[in-house]
Amino acid sequence: MLCSIYKLEISRALDSGKPLSGLAKRHLRRCSPCREFARFGRELEQRLTHDAATLLENHHVSLGERALSSLGRRTELPSIPRRILGKPVWVAAAVSAIFLVAIVLATRILFVTPRSDQTPSLESLLKYEAPRVYLEKAAQKAESPYETEIQELKKALGTAAGIIEASLNIGLGGQTK
Amino acid sequence: MNKNSSAGYLPDEELASRAAAGSRPSFEELVSRYAPRLFYFLRAKSQTDEDIEDLVQETFLRAFQNINRYDSRWKFSTWLYTLAVRLAISRYRAKKTKLSQLDPESQECPSLGPPEIMIEKEKAEKHKNIWNLAVSLDPKQYEALWLRYAEDMPIKDIARAMKKSQAGVRVLLHRARLNLGEKLKVPAPSANLAEKEETSYALLNL
Description:
The structure holds 2 protein chains of 2 kinds.
Chain A (H helix, E strand, L loop, with lengths): L1 H15 L5 H9 L1 H27 L3 H13 L13 H23 L11 H22 L3 H22 L9
Helix pairs in contact in A: 1-3, 2-3
Chain B lengths: L11 H9 L3 H19 L6 H17 L10 H27 L11 H13 L3 H5 L4 H12 L4 H8 L3 H19 E3 L5 H4 L2 E3 L5
Antiparallel strand pairs in B: 1-2
């Protein structure tokens, strides 16, 4: 049971390159299988590295050539980096749109047609316009056929609420006169 | 590994950047560097050399199509192996589904008849190189071992390539060591009777 834990620690030490803890070292002194595993782990590392190099050195190059010829058949490298057609297109489009809007606004602000002498000024027009608007609103209000009726209904409702409030001795949330 | 130290040697990441800018020779150089490495990396998941070669070619095609997405902050090898792992998984799944649709019993391991025994013997001959023995490990354990020792990748990069946690990769490596140890275990040639009970890890050619 404990050996499996110590073997795991040995493996971790091999992976990290850090030394074993004092506890693990003490265990190794007593435990032959764990000592064997530690030795095996170190030897295995060397062996795996060495044999991988041997494999790759002895490997014939035709695989790379076949891969390349397959690639050549199936596609061609793009002359223009695909980045232009990829995700950054969104950024480019957004920047162009903002730029266009900015140009249009700037043009309108900078190149707005100046007012000629014959054109009446805006201030004088507003002077006449404002009272006219108030008058129109007042007239509309006065002419409204329902306005008096609404006012009367409001009064009646207020009175009814007052009576109910007084008789039941509760607050209805309305204004009491 | 196998990296030429001459002045003209360009790192993989530089070659990948050039390939992304449209340089075909740069991509070809990457292919020649990585084709055998991918071949040995992928062989735990495939049964025949043809399958592995197809997978290697498919990986390069995918790399070629997506070279502009390669982030040069990461090692090129990590990126390439990530692509290879993904492709291998998807192909493995597709194959498994196809096999189960064709014949539900085909997934079972067939009994070793005389020709199979001969093949096994041939394989044993090949065990002079430990990777030929390691290929019989669980594919994930084999891949972790390859990335760690053939590619000299740190655990962090292996975890990224294999889409696993760092702790998961450590466990895979540990199990690979234990299983390889089991495969290499032979009775110790000791005169002492008590020691004969023990077994030792006899590494071939060491």
